[in-house]
Amino acid sequence: MTGSLRTVLVAALLNVPLAATPFAAGAVAAQAAYFGGGTSSVEADSARDAELDAVAARIAATLRCPVCRSQSVLESSSQIARQMQALIREKLEAGETPEEITDFFIASYGDFILLRPRARGLNALVYILPAVAFLLGLALIMWKLRSGRGALDAALPAAARAAPTHPKDDGLDPADRAWLDAAIGEDT
């Protein structure tokens, strides 16, 4: 009997985990070789199922439920949404790509089935009009500010528009300046 097989047998008889025995790496390798080694097909299938579920969920999240209309196929609990989820899963298992599956649903239901419409044709207006409205509003605000400033400048006399050269030279009458200085408490 070889050392690694003996280690496996002794560990099994004494109910000791293989990792706690000497030559653990050799024992694990011998056990893997004896029992078929590597990952099992069950583990591989569960990993593939988890991957298919993730891809199916991503596709279902982009499609609108035909019954609920405000929910995705993934969120909806309606019968047709569950059928669509099952169909997505079947098509993925058959080897279709996510784009092919999405195109299938678009062909069946039209662009309405997409929660986020594609930016082409009239659907492009959904993406373009808010930006155009924002820019027009900004231009209108700028125009109003400039025209308001021009009207204010025209209404003020030329003396009021001139910048004072001295802090006390602010365009006030000497009598008004004297009254203001007295109220503030400054000596002129």
Could you explain how this protein is built, in words?
By secondary structure, the chain is an all-alpha fold. The protein has 3 domains: 3-35, no CATH class; 41-113, Cytochrome C biogenesis protein (Helicase, Ruva Protein, domain 3, Orthogonal Bundle), CATH 1.10.8; 124-182, no CATH class. 64% of the residues lie in helices and 0% in strands. The protein has 8 helices and no strands. It has helices at 3-14, 24-35, 41-62, 79-93, 98-109, 124-155, 158-161, 174-184. Helix 1 (3-14) packs across helix 2 (24-35) and helix 3 packs across helix 4 (79-93). It is elongated, with a radius of gyration of 40 Å. The N and C termini lie far apart (117 Å).
Considering the chains and any ligands shown, give keywords for the structure:
single chain; Helicase, Ruva Protein, domain 3; 188 residues; mainly alpha; 0% strand
Q: Output mean pLDDT.
A: 77
Number of domains: 3
Main sheet overview: none
- CATH homologous superfamily title of the largest domain: Cytochrome C biogenesis protein
CATH class group of the largest domain:
Mainly Alpha
Total strand segments: 0
Low-confidence stretches: 16-32
Distance linking N and C termini: 117 Å
Share of helix, binned: 55-70%
Radius of gyration from CA coordinates: 40 Å
Binned strand content: under 5%
Q: What best-fitting shape do the alpha-carbon axes yield?
A: elongated
Architecture of the largest domain, according to CATH? Orthogonal Bundle
Q: Any idea of the CATH topology of the largest domain? A: Helicase, Ruva Protein, domain 3
Element string (H = helix, E = strand): HHHHHHHH
Assembly type: single chain
